[in-house]
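[Discussion] Sanity-checking designs against the backbone

I'm trying to build intuition for which residues belong where. Below is a structure token string of 588 positions. I'd appreciate it if someone posts a full sequence so I can compare it with mine line by line.
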């Protein structure tokens, strides 16, 4: 049975339904590139069940030129087929927090499926490498991901710094060429999903802990078309409920929402714009006259400053209600929010109610959102009492340059908002515009490889690793533990010795009640492996994943670092290799 909480309808899972007009669908479908690739039938695929990337830009030459030059040098040195293991990870959690959400994995699989060099691309590269031998280009023509295997943490999972999010194995040359596109596909996706999750958690901490609707409105402010599409897709994965981006709704099945802009309101000068033939609605022969009857009654019973009501605004609201009587939500701050906008909306809402329609609410796009939402709610309640109508729970949506800090400030001050439309700060990630994922060689022909640095934080972690999440009896995650992939996995109930890789004073024993293997095979030698979750499934997994760690790891102010540890055996190996690899200075 669906629940309802003040202006926001809630489904059986506790997820708010949109208070705005929802013209999209919520059915689950396998994402298709049919709307993207003009010549999709000509794109070779290793596994036809996977499909194509959702952008034509995602192909082999979406890379840094030095990847091509390294590939040539590998080929010329006869190293191109050495078996390599690379790790993809980030060193520091974004937004001054202690967690991130991994996203972009599905798109990475689609890229692996279609990776190749076309004849046109080969000809272009010949022009950029005029001294390269012809045999190298013959090598590139045959290159694909049929010998590559990839492990990844499931998309939508909560992840932490310095742990491998993805492990790429295969011939050195092709694995090297995958670096830039894989980083491109996961970096922004994970950043915006994390940003969305943080906004969702901030909004949930509202007075009364009522369900808040989060809507992504950032298409016009995003970094180009691909940025807009990625922002809509991964904001939804991170916990948002809908988007204004129609193309994203069409391509990914995200609920599409929207009402009207100030231009719609200002396009009406007055009630004379509605003159002419009667405007019927439902059982009413002239909806305009019905609204005017309610205006007279509303001004007697509720309004305190009727002279401030703008008739052009009222005409706009009437016109919009005639078009969308079941989903009428009005932007009320074009002239005076309280004395004009909210009052004009309520007159229209009363007329709709008398005909059996339910108005949705209002949107605030400027001013003191906390104060205005409270004043609007007072008018809703006064109207409910004066007319004996259920208007207490009409929705109030805010969309005025909202970000995480603004939401937290509104929570502290107290507000009556039910929904946030968030654009610029969400999609551009203004608080931190890049995540900083890196891609490092961990092993070559079964020999561990390690990058040292005078900055200890930049020292890479060598060898082919497995990653496990250990859970306490309470059900929350205690730590993530790395070890050699060949070592026996940790078992529930065993006493496991865990150590911090870079601080030898930090160590502990853990007796896990549950052990989760995080790195799972998603691509093996030309075939997709395992279940490929839909976007909705990834979103659900993200929401559940955030519930599996302690709240102090997630808080905005002074979050507690989550433990990313190593097994005792792996710690000893790591320190020994560090000592052997690090040069010894000689002082004279």
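Best answer:
Here's mine. Compare freely.
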């Amino acid at each position: 049975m669906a629940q309802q909480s003040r202006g926001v309808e809630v489904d059986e899972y506790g997820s708010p339904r949109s208070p705005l007009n929802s013209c999209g669908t919520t059915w689950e479908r396998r994402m298709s590139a049919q709307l993207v690739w003009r010549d999709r039938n000509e794109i070779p695929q290793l596994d036809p069940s996977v499909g194509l990337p959702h952008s034509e830009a995602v192909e082999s030459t979406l890379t840094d030129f030095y990847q091509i030059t390294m590939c040539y040098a590998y080929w010329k040195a006869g190293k191109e087929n050495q078996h390599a293991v690379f790790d993809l990870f980030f060193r520091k959690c974004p937004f001054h927090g202690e967690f991130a959400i991994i996203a972009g994995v599905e798109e990475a699989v689609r890229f692996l499926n279609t990776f190749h060099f076309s004849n046109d691309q080969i000809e272009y590269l010949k022009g950029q490498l005029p001294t390269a031998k012809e045999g190298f280009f013959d090598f590139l023509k045959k290159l694909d991901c049929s010998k590559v295997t990839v492990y990844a943490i499931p998309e939508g999972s909560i992840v932490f710094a310095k742990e491998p999010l993805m492990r790429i194995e295969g011939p050195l040359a092709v694995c090297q060429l995958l670096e830039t596109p894989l980083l491109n596909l996961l970096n922004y996706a994970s950043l915006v999903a994390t940003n969305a999750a943080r906004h969702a958690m901030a909004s949930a901490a509202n007075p009364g802990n009522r369900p808040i609707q989060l809507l992504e409105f950032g298409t016009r402010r995003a970094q180009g078309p691909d940025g807009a599409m990625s922002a809509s897709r991964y904001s939804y994965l991170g916990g948002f409920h809908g988007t204004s981006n129609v193309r994203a709704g069409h391509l990914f099945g995200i609920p599409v929402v929207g009402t009207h802009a100030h231009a719609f309101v200002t396009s009406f000068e007055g009630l004379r714009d509605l003159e002419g033939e009667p405007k019927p609605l439902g059982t009413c022969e002239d909806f305009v006259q019905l609204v005017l009857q309610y205006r007279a009654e509303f001004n007697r019973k509720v309004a305190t400053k009727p002279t401030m009501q703008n008739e052009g605004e009222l005409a706009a609201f009437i016109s919009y209600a005639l078009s969308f009587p079941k989903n009428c939500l009005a932007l009320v701050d074009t002239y005076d929010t309280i004395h004009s906008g909210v009052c004009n909306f309520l007159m229209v809402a009363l007329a709709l109610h008398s005909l059996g329609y339910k108005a949705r609410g209002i949107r605030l796009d400027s001013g003191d959102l906390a104060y205005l939402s409270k004043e609007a709610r007072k008018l809703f309640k006064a109207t409910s009492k004066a007319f004996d109508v259920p208007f207490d729970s009409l929705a109030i949506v805010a969309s005025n340059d909202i970000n995480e800090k603004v939401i937290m400030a509104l929570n502290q001050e107290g507000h009556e908002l039910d929904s946030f439309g968030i654009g610029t700060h969400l999609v551009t990630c203004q608080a931190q515009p890049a995540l900083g994922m890196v891609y490092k060689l961990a092993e070559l022909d079964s020999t561990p490889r390690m990058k040292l640095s005078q900055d200890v934080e930049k020292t890479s972690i060598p060898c082919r690793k497995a990653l496990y999440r250990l859970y306490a009896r309470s059900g929350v995650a205690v730590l993530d533990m790395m070890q050699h992939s060949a070592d026996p996995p940790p078992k529930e109930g065993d006493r496991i010795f865990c150590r911090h890789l870079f601080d030898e004073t930090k160590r502990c024993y853990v007796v896990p009640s549950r052990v989760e293997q995080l790195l799972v095979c998603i691509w093996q030698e030309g075939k997709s492996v395992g279940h490929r979750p839909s976007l909705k499934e990834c979103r659900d997994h993200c929401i559940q994943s955030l519930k599996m760690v302690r709240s102090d790891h997630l808080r905005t102010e002074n979050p507690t670092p989550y433990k990313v540890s190593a097994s005792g055996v792996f710690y000893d190996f790591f320190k020994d290799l560090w000592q052997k690899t690090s040069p010894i200075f000689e002082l004279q």
